[in-house]
Amino acid sequence: MADKSNEAGPGGIKYISWTTICFMTVACVASIRNTPSMAIYGWACIFLYLVPAVVFLIPTALVSAELASAWDGGVYRWVSEGVGPKAGFVAIWTQYAMTLTYYPSLLASVASTLAFIISPGLASSGLYTGIIILVFFWGSTLVSFRGLETSAVLSSGGMVIGTLIPGVTLVGLGILYLFGSGQNYSAGTGLLPEFAGIASLVLIVNNFLSYAGMEVNAVHVNQMEKPSKDFPRAMFVASGMAVAIFVLPALAISFVVPRDQLSLTAGVMQAFQQFFEYFHVGFLTPAFALMIVCAMLGGMMGWLAGPSKGLLMVGRENGYLPPKLQKMNKKGIQQNILIGQGIVVSVIALLFAFIPSVSSAFWILSAMTTQIYLIMYVLLFIAVVKLRKSQPERPRGYRVPALMFMAGVGLVSSVLVFFIGLIPPSQFGSNSPALYALLLLGGTLGLGLGVPFLFLWLRKPSWKQEEKPKPSPAEEGGPA
Q1: Residue 226 DSSP class
Q2: What angle do CA 48, 413, 397 make, to 5 degrees?
């Protein structure tokens, strides 16, 4: 089907095509940078990725498709309609809050990948990593100020250049390697991981949030020509691509890199280096490192454009944010919200650079934001069931088959993952599991629920905008 993102509709409005939304979604969700953590399990990585895909990815994608085909505005609108405006504000806040540590961890991976090209020793330098985080985050934020058109092009383009091309290349090299004379280091690994009690459950849980973000770009659904038809199509294709991007490269990495030598942060580049040396094309390694950096930056652009826009919309329409945080620039972009999150990310980057002992606290903070994000998914699955009952006649371009079952699976999975996530990993050492759980639960409830309820408590009638914000010029002219 032809891409219509360049075609103008009535009034000269340009639409975002379903392929653009699909690529933006894949950029937010899937990345080969995380596959080394599962590659160490060889063929069992298929099971470890498929279980979360069946009980979490598919329900999330289908539910998002139905909701987006009937209501624009994304998560905040869906939960507001189904549960209530205050719950909608909590939902979009939790989606936004989890990004505050996602960005530093993502850019830390960018730093380690670039160090692979410049000087591998830099990867262990906190100062170098902190500088990279600051430069790339603020650079991406300034790009976001230019509007959705620029962000969408960079996000979808980064996904193609840095995820699809390297991913297909990695899989292709893996197949050729298997038929060659190279040693297959995944040989002997079973299709099921060895069961080691609760640790095995935690292992699967780690992959649930690998699929988080399918709903992020639904906030742009009102900029599609035929959203009720095209958004579900984008979700289905993006789901299949996400699973393939995780599973196939993980297998390829397991073929060529011994498990006891595999780096969880630089494993992808280790695999490319091994493959390229095996096929005598080692000069390609730096080029592919840069391509992977493009993918990570493209994924971040997708996250910058989504949750913060949803937070602005619900903050303005319902008066849940103070006027300073509702300010938009000439392009209609949530300028002060982006600046505020930039300040938080900068503080984390500086701590990362100058306080080596902050690593364990940073890890707990990252785990905390994962728990916060699950609050949003619980509200999402509750909202879709309530809306099917309260507004059954509302036109829907797509209806989830067996909705009660599908939403029930997603809801139960989210709740179980939340509580299993309170179990400390082996890296936590001999510290008290109860202390870990209390720190994580306290921080989750404080940041995930305490902060939005504080805004609700402090809000004034003057915070509410009399009129909805007009579409910006950038939003009226969608991306090419």
Answers
A1: S
A2: 100
**Proportion of the chain in helix, strand, coil states, percent, rounded to 5:** 75, 0, 25
| Rounded-to-integer distance, Cα 213 and Cα 401, Å | 22
Nearest C-alpha neighbor of 156 from the set 272, 21, 256, 309: 21
Q: What's the average model confidence in pLDDT over 61-72? A: 87
| Torsional sign, CA 307, 310, 311, 312 | positive
> How far apart (Å, rounded) are the C-alpha atoms in residues 480 and 470?
22
What is the mean predicted confidence (pLDDT) over 317-326? 84
- What is the radius of gyration, based on Cα positions, of the chain? 22
**CA distances for 310 relative to 78, 97, 204, 317, 326, angstroms:** 11, 12, 30, 11, 11
Map tokens 């599991």 to a residue: 433
Beta bridge partners, 477, equal 14
3-class SS of residue 227? helix
Q: What percentage of the chain reaches a pLDDT higher than 90?
A: 15
Statement: residue 195 has pLDDT above 50: yes
CA dihedral of 276, 277, 280, 284, whole degrees rounded to 10? 40
Partnered with residue 8 across adjacent β-strands are 14
Residues 221, 231 contacting (CB under 8 angstroms): yes
- In sequence order, the 6+-apart residues with CB closer than 8 A to the CB of 208 are 52, 56, 413, 417
Q: Which residue has the tokens 């209501």?
A: 71
Which residue segments constitute the domains of the chain, with CATH numbers given?
22-460 (1.20.1740.10)
pLDDT band at 429 (very low <50, low <70, confident <90, very high): low
Higher pLDDT, 365 or 297: 297
**What are 437's strand-pairing partners?**
none
Most confident of 52-66, 362-376, 416-430: 52-66
The strand pairing partners of 151, in sequence order, are none
